[in-house]
Design brief:
Length: 178
């Protein structure tokens, strides 16, 4: 509630089912492992409406998880969120995987463009591989950098990030151009 008050001052905090039932578009931004339960729970409460567009931001799921909702799409920004206001400008130029049925695809793509992102269509059957590739790249990179920081600390480097940042940026640039 504190975060909502800070980011959305003056906006009333209502029960989820009331918000969902009253919206024309619902954007679900919950952790991957909570999405299916949220969608099915809202379906059991009967809050989905046929005229709604329902979109989630999970990289791991396509549109099948939104089965209880009728018009659905999945958009996933290829970035890690901090949960703070610094995330908003980082959306500009960020690629988004977009998965949606033909009728909702232009709407999902337009939503991404309106946020400043770049939409790229990813088929429902490819969402798992897409998500695995992003996780592998991000997690592997984080582990390698953490290990390098630990090694530098053992030789007395107090701020290993100062040494690693330019190396990592150059290495990432080379890898992405390859």
């Amino acid at each position: 509630k504190e975060r909502a008050d800070a980011l959305l001052p003056g906006i009333p905090i209502l029960p989820v089912e009331e918000i969902v039932h009253s919206c024309e578009m619902v954007l679900l931004t919950v952790p991957d492992d909570q999405l299916a339960g949220l969608v099915s729970g809202l379906g059991e409460l009967g809050v989905w409406r046929a005229s709604q567009l329902v979109v989630h931001t999970s990289g791991a799921h396509g549109i099948e998880v939104l089965e209880p909702a009728t018009r659905a799409g999945a958009i996933h920004p290829a970035m890690t969120f901090t949960g703070t206001s610094v995330d908003i400008p980082r959306l500009i130029g960020t690629p988004f995987a977009v998965t949606a049925p033909a009728i909702a695809l232009p709407i999902a793509q337009a939503l991404v463009v309106e946020m400043g992102g770049e939409p790229f269509e990813v088929a429902e059957e490819d969402r798992g591989v897409y998500h695995a590739a992003l996780n592998h790249g991000a997690n592997f990179l984080a582990v390698v950098v953490a290990q390098a920081k630990q090694v530098l600390a053992t030789v007395g480097i107090e701020d290993p990030g100062t040494f690693l940042r330019p190396l990592c940026e150059a290495a990432l640039d080379r890898a992405l151009r390859a």
